[in-house]
């Protein structure tokens, strides 16, 4: 371990930061970290060109933590992120790396949460502010001096911020923080708009460019399924009915999720156990040994708890929760398909996680095929197949060992051989449904999102898919509980559906699946929004700008 410790320690970071990094399981700094950390520590402005998944969050978080003056209870570092999901992820990373630095406070500032507590957290001395541009501008309208002590500014995924229409907001923020600050900009691409920002707001920046290595996992059969977040456990239970696996590891994000899913699996008769950071080392070893020798078939684990887990009989990996980055995805699914064996990896994707799926596909250089949840007929066929396989080895000798008992039971009960066999089957299958009508009734309602134009299992035509590639056509029938709203911004304004989607997610505070179809026409666009609370939402979006222009969203009257 000495050599690994030296990797981060050699970057002149505070030993407490190094210890926190090593505690997360990282052993050696990535290429972007090795090059960026010394530049940021030295006080230079920097432009980093790197894809998601290269370790860029730690590349700016570690040196900034190293520079923070814990004795000063005021905002010192501002990190801007395009979406609230990324803002929360970055804030969590800062908190993780600062675990051994008492007095460091981090606040995440984003739309959809009350403004009061956010502003109080900033005023009460949070040294690190991680924010989306739109919500931060809301705070600046309330208190234009709130960022006057910022010394370090990071723009994370700058190209995405511009795509989402935050250019004007960025200019407001630049004007609100001291010109003497140190500025770091990370972007996957460097279009002219990013170069223009760098020329105006960065001072003699150093350039770092990292080529994202394509990670291949060709030996593993990969697929993804679209489900709602609250339907993940029913989806997993339904998938396990038809998947033929030897041993399986299911990845989730939180300790509580390991317990919840393991309990649901055990209730269905699976030999399952949870593996998380609260489990003692000796118990962890027992769980792994049980998985190796067949006493357990399924382990539900967090990324940290699963480090070093190497069990050859694992045939399946279920990514129940989306990993935070492509590297984690590759590490997870790499636990199957070993030693020439077949491996299968399934990824559950909620509608708001489509972008991360695309990032995973780009980094791995492979398409993760879309799958569907099995229908009732597939579940019934799988149950009968399992029953057949369990009975097959018994049939040859059963008549010789239990034939006389069978004859006696038939006589004592006064029933036919068929009736007795049926009763024994019912007892052996523990009341499990083995007829199509019953299986159909017991199937949970698990929405699965088909690409636009394809029919789902329930026979409905789905119009989900890439919203940026929707046909511009007449308004489609509205789903119950939704209304259509109109903005005067359209294709001729340089607007794409993802710009509108991003602005509403960031500023409106809606869940991703609360927003319906987005149709971009030449001179206007139509957006489906929840009818409940619509007026509050429109008020909240009143000052929102997209591509530098006011959204001015209003209810659309089709008559």
Short description:
This protein is an alpha/beta fold and 559 residues long. It has 20 helices and 20 strands.
Give an account of the 3D structure.
Helices cover 41% and strands 15% of the residues. It has a seven-stranded parallel sheet with strand order 3-4-2-5-6-1-7, with helices on both faces. A seven-stranded parallel sheet has the order 10-11-9-12-13-8-14, sandwiched between helices. The chain has helices at 2-9, 15-23, 31-41, 56-67, 84-97, 115-123, 133-142, 158-163, 167-176, 192-201, 232-242, 255-267, 281-293, 326-333, 354-364, 376-413, 417-428, 436-442, 497-508, 534-540; strands spanning 46-49, 77-80, 106-109, 128-131, 152-155, 182-187, 206-209, 220-226, 247-251, 272-275, 298-301, 314-319, 343-349, 369-370, 482-487, 518-520, 525-530, 545-546, 549-550, 554-555. The radius of gyration is 28 Å and the shape is globular. The longest helix has 38 residues, at 376-413. It is an alpha/beta fold and 559 residues long. 36% of the residues are buried. A hairpin with a 4-residue loop joins β16 (518-520) and β17 (525-530). The protein folds into four domains: 2-209, P-loop containing nucleotide triphosphate hydrolases (Rossmann fold); 220-375, Rossmann fold (3-Layer(aba) Sandwich), CATH 3.40.50; 377-442, no CATH class; 467-555, Alpha-Beta Plaits (2-Layer Sandwich), CATH 3.30.70.330. The chain is built from 20 helices and 20 strands. α4 (56-67) crosses α5 (84-97) and α7 crosses α9.
């Amino acid at each position: 371990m000495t050599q690994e410790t030296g990797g981060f320690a050699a970057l002149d970071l505070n030993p407490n930061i190094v210890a926190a990094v090593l505690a997360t399981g990282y052993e050696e700094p990535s290429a972007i970290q090795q090059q960026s950390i010394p530049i940021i520590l030295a006080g230079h402005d920097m432009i980093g060109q790197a894809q998601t998944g290269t370790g860029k969050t730690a590349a700016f978080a570690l040196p900034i933590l190293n520079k923070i003056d814990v004795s000063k209870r005021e905002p010192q570092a501002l990190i801007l992120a395009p979406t609230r999901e990324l803002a929360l992820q970055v804030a969590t990373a800062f908190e993780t790396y600062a675990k051994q630095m008492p007095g460091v406070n981090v606040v995440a500032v984003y739309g959809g949460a009350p403004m009061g507590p956010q502003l109080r957290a900033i005023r009460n001395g949070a040294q690190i502010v991680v924010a989306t541009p739109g919500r931060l501008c809301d705070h600046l309208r309330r208190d234009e001096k709130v960022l006057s002590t910022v010394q370090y500014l990071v723009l994370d995924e700058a190209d995405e911020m511009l795509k989402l229409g935050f250019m004007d907001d960025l200019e407001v923020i630049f004007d609100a923080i001291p010109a003497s600050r140190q500025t770091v900009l990370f972007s996957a691409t460097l279009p002219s708009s990013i170069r223009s920002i760098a020329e105006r707001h960065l001072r003699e920046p150093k350039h770092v460019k990292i080529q994202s290595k394509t990670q291949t996992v060709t030996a593993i059969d990969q697929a993804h399924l679209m489900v709602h977040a609250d339907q993940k456990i029913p989806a997993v239970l339904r998938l396990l009915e038809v998947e033929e696996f030897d041993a399986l590891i299911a990845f989730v994000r939180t300790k509580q999720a390991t317990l919840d899913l393991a309990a649901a699996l055990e209730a269905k008769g699976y030999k399952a156990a949870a593996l998380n950071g609260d489990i003692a080392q000796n118990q962890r070893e027992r769980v792994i040994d049980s998985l190796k020798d067949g006493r357990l078939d399924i382990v539900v684990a967090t990324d940290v708890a699963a480090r070093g887990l190497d069990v050859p009989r694992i045939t399946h990996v279920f990514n129940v929760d989306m990993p935070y980055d492509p590297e984690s995805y590759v590490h997870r699914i790499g636990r199957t398909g070993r030693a020439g064996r077949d491996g299968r990896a399934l990824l559950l994707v909620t509608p708001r996680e489509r972008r991360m799926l695309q990032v995973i596909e780009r980094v791995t250089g492979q398409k993760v095929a879309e799958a569907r949840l099995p229908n009732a007929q597939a579940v019934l066929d799988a149950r009968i197949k399992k029953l057949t396989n369990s009975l097959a080895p018994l049939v040859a000798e059963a008549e010789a060992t239990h034939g006389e008992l069978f004859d006696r039971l038939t006589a004592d009960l006064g029933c036919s051989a068929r009736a007795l066999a049926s009763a024994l089957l019912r007892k052996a299958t523990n009341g499990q449904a083995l007829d199509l009508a019953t299986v159909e009734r017991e199937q949970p309602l698990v929405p699965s999102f088909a690409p636009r134009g394809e029919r789902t299992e329930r026979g409905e035509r789905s119009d989900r898919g890439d919203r940026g590639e929707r046909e511009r056509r007449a308004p489609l029938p509205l789903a119950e509980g939704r209304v259509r709203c109109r903005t005067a911004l359209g294709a001729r304004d340089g607007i794409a559906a993802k710009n509108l989607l991003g602005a509403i997610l960031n500023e409106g505070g809606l869940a991703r699946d609360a927003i319906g179809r987005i149709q971009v026409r030449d001179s206007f666009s139509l957006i489906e929004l929840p009818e409940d609370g619509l007026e509050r939402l429109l008020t909240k979006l009143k000052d929102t700008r997209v591509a530098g222009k006011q959204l001015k969203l209003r209810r659309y009257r089709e008559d």
